[in-house]
Amino acid sequence: MSANPPSAEPPVDPHVDEPAVAEPRTAAGEDPMQDPAPGAPQDSTAQDIASQDIDEPPAGTSFLAYFGRKLGGAAISMLMVILLGFFAFRILPGDPVAKIARERPMTAEQVAALRAEYGLDQPLLVQFWDYLTGIFTGDMGESYVYQQSVSSLIAQYAWPTLLLTGTAAIIAIVLGLWMGQLAAWKRNSLFDKATTGTSLILWSVPTFWLALILLMVFGGTLQWLPTGGMVSPGVEPGTFAYVIDVAEHLILPVITMVAVIYAQYLLVMRASLLEEMSADYLTTARAKGLNEDGVRRKHAVPNALLPTVTLVFMHIGGLIAGAVTVETVFSWPGLGKLTYEAISGPDLPLLQGTFVVFSAAIIVMNLIADLLYRQLDPRVRRA
């Protein structure tokens, strides 16, 4: 019994060619494993990928388009303010002509003539059209009480309001941001707990109540500071004594406004910096040899400032509009006190004028905040 022969591979016919393996097509004399010559043409897709920075996010809309969109929104908001300001004040209780008639004897004919002089005898839509055209031409009407144009009154009383609110805003911003970044960096320390707790208490205090307390203590009981007004009688304007006297009158209203508003900047800055403290770039900065103070000032704080930009500008506009209470308590001769007197009238043209100015301040500050935030944060530009 013979064993089966081992299996052999099938014979290969030498006359049959083996299938050739496809190789990359190259120019004559070129090695396909080598990079193309510097001047050789490349594929367009490869060129696009090579020329594109993969770390660069896609660009967003242009600045002009962004600015136009925000400006259009601000214009619509301003028109809504004008519309609301006219019709809302018309439903307030009280008749300005009747109040004037009670202050001095007037006949029915004189009352009717006074209504015609103020334009109150016209239909409501006619009054609104006159008011709207006056806004765009700079004529806001004439005050019933002061017998003076509203535009000139606003220009006269705007400077004291800007002085008061500007001083309070600068102090509140610097104090809030400085204490906020220190509180975050010293998280859970005694300083953090004390500053955060104090700011929350002051933030919850009503502005008029704090103003009355300061007025009674420092102006009444201790008699350290003036109780009202902007300047003492008899002080000559333009002198050094005038500047000192105005500064003394500023102390109590500025302290009142700063104590109430600085807490917002402190809390937002603290929260923003706490989010940045766990970022990897701070670890890299420490590894390069920077001390903690340098890491905080040069790296963490600039990035944490971004969320506070919008808050700062929005609150500046609201601060101007919110000066009514403080100026009324301290008899500060600004737009806030002027608004309070217009409400008690009611002095409709003056009330509408101050309302438009306050609303315009808020809208303009919001617009500036949006534009500035876009420049500071690249993510907004590419959104």
What can you tell me about this protein's structure?
This protein is mainly α and 383 residues long. Helix content is 68%, strand content 0%. The chain starts with 43 loop residues before the first helix and ends with a helix.
Oligomer: single chain
Order of SSEs? HHHHHHHHHHHHHHHH
What would you call the structural class? mainly alpha
Main β-sheet, in a few words? none
Shape type:
globular
Q: Helicity range of the residues?
A: 55-70%
Radius of gyration: 36 Å
Termini gap: 88 Å
What's the total number of strands?
0
Mean pLDDT: 77
- Count of DSSP helices? 16
**Contiguous uncertain segments of 5+ residues:** 1-33, 37-58
| Strand proportion | under 5%
Features:
disordered N terminus; single chain; 16 helices; 383 residues; mainly alpha
How are the elements arranged and paired?
Layout: H1 44-51, H2 63-90, H3 96-103, H4 108-118, H5 124-137, H6 150-185, H7 190-204, H8 207-221, H9 240-276, H10 280-287, H11 292-304, H12 306-321, H13 323-329, H14 335-344, H15 348-376, H16 378-381
